[in-house]
Amino acid sequence: MLMYMSNTSPKAPSTPLHSVSVAGIVVREDGRVLTIRRADNGTWEPPGGVLELAEAPEDGVRREVYEETGIEVQVDRLTGVYKNTSRGIVALVFRCRVEGGHERLSDESAAVEWLSPDEVTSRMAEVYAVRVTDALLDGAPMVRAHDGRKLAQNL
User: Fold this and answer.
1) How many CB atoms lie within 10 A of CB 103?
2) How many CA atoms lie within 13 A of 116 on its CB side?
3) pLDDT for position 5
4) What is the pLDDT of residue 153?
5) How many Å apart are CA 143 and CA 102, to the nearest integer?
6) pLDDT value, residue 17
7) 36, 47 in Cβ contact below 8 A?
8) How far, in Å, CA of 55 to CA of 95, rounded?
9) Which residues contact 92 (CB under 8 A, 6 or more apart)?
10) Residue 72: strand pairing partners
């Protein structure tokens, strides 16, 4: 039997549930970034997806990048945490580097391309492009919220 337990009292509203996803910003030596054009909606995004229940975030990034692109990566560092306030999704984004593999399409990717930072900002929606531009910066991870289309400061 599966039972939902909340950290609130029975009289208080239930705690919202969130989904956790991971994405890899894979940067090549020439500065180009690995991207996919999603098969389901045609948008350009960094490779990534939902973190499995018993999976460490870094393992999830490696798995998702490989499944969607055929590229094997080494995870370097967390570069950002992004919350989609309309869908309850928290995305952990990591900067990665190539370890092996070859670009290939998957059921989830209609195209796999290495884009320049300028191409990223022109092809990707703001909420995905900022994940790439944040990952290219040095320093502490960024923490941002968005509604699925616009960053919180632009809502």
Assistant:
1) 14
2) 3
3) 41
4) 73
5) 32
6) 86
7) yes
8) 18
9) 20, 21, 22, 23, 51, 57, 78, 80, 81
10) 100
Amino acid letter for position 150: K
Q: Which of 118, 111, 146, 152 is nearest to 132 (CA)?
A: 118
Residues in the chain: 155
pLDDT of residue 152: 86
pLDDT digits (tens, 9 = 90+) for 3-55: 334 444 556 566 778 999 999 999 999 999 999 999 999 999 999 999 999 99
Count the Cβ atoms, other than its own, within 10 Å of residue 91: 24
What is the end-to-end Cα distance of the chain in Å, rounded? 42
Whole-angstrom Cα distance, residue 14 to residue 8?
A: 6
Q: Are 140 and 78 in contact (CB under 8 A)?
A: no
Q: Pairing state of beta strands 71-84 and 142-146? A: parallel
User: Which residues are registered as beta bridge partners of 98?
Assistant: 73
Residues 92-125: pLDDT tens digits? 999 999 999 999 999 999 999 999 999 999 999 9
Question: Where do we find the tokens 């990566």?
Answer: 73
